[in-house]
Amino acid sequence: MLEVNNLNTCYDFLHVLWDVSLVINEGEYVCLIGPNGAGKSTVLKSIAGLIEIKSGEIFFKGISIGDKKGDQICRMGISLVSEEMNLFTGMTVMENLSMGAYTIRGKKKKEALMNFVFELFPRLAERRIQLAGTLSGGERKMLAIGRSLMSDPSLLLVDEPSLGLAPRVVDTVFQALEVLNKKGVTIFLVEQNVTKTLQVVDRGYVLERGKIVLEGSRVELSRNEHIRKIYLGV
Amino acid sequence: MICGGLSNVGEAIVMEPVIVRFFRWLKSSAGITILVTLVIAAYAAMDQGAYVIINILVTGGMWALMAMGLTLMFGVMNISNFAHGEYFMIGTLVAYYVFTPLHQHLESHPNHLLTLVAPVIAVFSAFVVGGMSGILTDRLVFYPLRKRSKENWLMNCFLLTLGISVILINAHQLIFGTQYKGIVRYWPLPPVSLFGVYISIDRLFASVLAIVTIAIFWVFMKYTKVGQALRAVSQDETGALMVGISVDNIQLLAMIMSCALAAMAGGSLLFMYPSYPTVGLEPLYNSWFVIIIVGFGNIAGAAAGGFMIALLQILTRVYVGEGWEYVIPVLLIALVLIVKPNGLFGSKVRGIWEK
């Protein structure tokens, strides 16, 4: 479904990603793990078209999207939940969700999607007329995921959903992602919480200093000596 | 049950009745300000006659249009536009050069319908040309800058808009000269009597046009999809890109609307402000007064603030004396900035540019 070939990305003079290649198949739940500053978020932002890539190719459903802008990529069915969430803080929860459905035509479909999001996160339904800027961290994360779902994506890119959240809320978010994956949404997850991540995903990549150093299935990764030593601390 | 552990934390939403919310709004700084403004306006109208109200509506409506454009541009593109007055100047210029030939033609061939419609044509062409100059400015100046670098954006834009202002003022002087290009009035009709006051048709038209435009603009921003996209871009540009809004097009639209509103204000006030190179400075200062007093990025506040500034200036002119009408607003700005640095209508939720 998504194929990234030899992706290179720079911030001005700082070369962050070095020949990153990865493949995500339809319906899979794939994670990208790695230490701080390895460039994990940069991979997601490059795919979502938020930063320009220097070289390399990105194919989504066979179409090259490497030179497309963020809004066009969103229209093709890739939705990003960014680390800083980028919510519309001055709008209510409902308005945020309906902005998420900006590319969706048809009122009925919009309503169905919104009901689905409220079913997934009943907490948001309680807060529907509250301004997004006044929500708690966990609620914001739920709203960010909910807003991404409103564009009815086939590929969901999720950046650090557990960052700064209470363990209970992290569970909620992870459960929601699993429900989505069972519903057929392909998920590409970037996470630092390796223990938790390796319990849920199908497959994973390890990114260190801008290069993919390891890839494999969940079982392979959790048995790998390097992973056990560095990330799991066993 | 997905969120089992969480549901006990939240409290149910209680929708408050409108009256309660209205009274709470009245207690906010915005409510107090508007209430005080209305009381002062009513007192002035009783003391000096109803013409005060009409003057407030005419000039205030126009400052409101200017300030709304200014705040829209600041919100959506993060540009503090110091060339906004020059789009007012473009409006007066276009209205003059459209209306004068029509007027001369009418003197030799009298035609009732055209007499009525000619001013509307003039104001409308000012609106259109203003919008087109907005497109030109965006594509020639701000679009290339956005593509190249977003570093130091606010300062760069401040310098650029000052440059645009100087260029446009001098271009006007070079091409059209420095003489006043004005008209006595748009409609050769007797003034109408309203509540015992005689109001010229020109003033009536300008105030009605301003109020109608403000209403249309508000509905557009609140209820249409494009208006919501404008608000979304002003709150979080990256977020807007992520939900599939074409940020480039929305920013171009904001520029067009902002410039078109300023030019329309210029066109419809041609009978008060004849066109000359620096005619835009006074409206520019006034709209900045409005923006600073009500707070940045608040469109409804900008509309209300326009009328407040107009009231303040007219009252100063009446009770304190001519020449003080710039001193008092500046003093008030200083006071507001000390007491409420976010402006009178400033919201509690911060936009992206304040982070």
Q: Which protein chains are joined by the largest interface, and how many residues does each one contribute?
A: A-B, 48 and 33 residues
Largest sheet of chain B: 2 strands, antiparallel
User: What structural category arises from helix and sheet content of chain A?
Assistant: alpha/beta
Tell how many strands the DSSP assignment of chain B holds: 2
Outline of the structure:
The complex is a heterodimer of chains A (234) and B (355). Chain A has 234 residues and is of the alpha/beta class.
How would you characterize the overall build of this protein?
The complex is a heterodimer of chains A (234) and B (355). Chain A is an alpha/beta fold and 234 residues long. Chain A has a domain of 115 residues: P-loop containing nucleotide triphosphate hydrolases (Rossmann fold). Chain A has ten helices and ten strands. In chain A, helix 3 packs parallel to helix 6. The mean pLDDT of chain A is 89. Chain B is an all-alpha fold and 355 residues long. Chain B has a single domain, classed as Orthogonal Bundle (ABC transporter involved in vitamin B12 uptake, BtuC). In chain B, a hairpin with a 2-residue loop joins strand 1 and strand 2. The longest helix of chain B is centred in the middle third of the chain and has 37 residues. Chain B is globular, with a radius of gyration of 22 Å. Classes of the chains: A alpha/beta (234), B mainly alpha (355). The interface between A and B is large, with 48 and 33 residues.
Strand-helix topology:
The complex is a heterodimer of chains A (234) and B (355).
Chain A: E1 2-11, E2 14-24, E3 29-33, H1 40-48, E4 55-60, E5 63-64, H2 70-76, E6 78-81, H3 93-100, H4 107-120, H5 122-126, H6 137-149, E7 155-159, H7 167-182, E8 186-191, H8 194-200, E9 203-208, E10 211-217, H9 218-223, H10 225-232
Parallel strand pairs in A: 3-8, 3-9, 6-7, 7-8
Antiparallel strand pairs in A: 1-2, 1-4, 4-5, 9-10
Helix pairs in contact in A: 3-6
Chain B: H1 18-27, H2 29-48, H3 51-77, H4 84-108, H5 112-148, H6 153-176, E1 192-194, E2 197-199, H7 201-223, H8 225-235, H9 237-242, H10 247-268, H11 281-294, H12 299-320, H13 327-339
Antiparallel strand pairs in B: 1-2
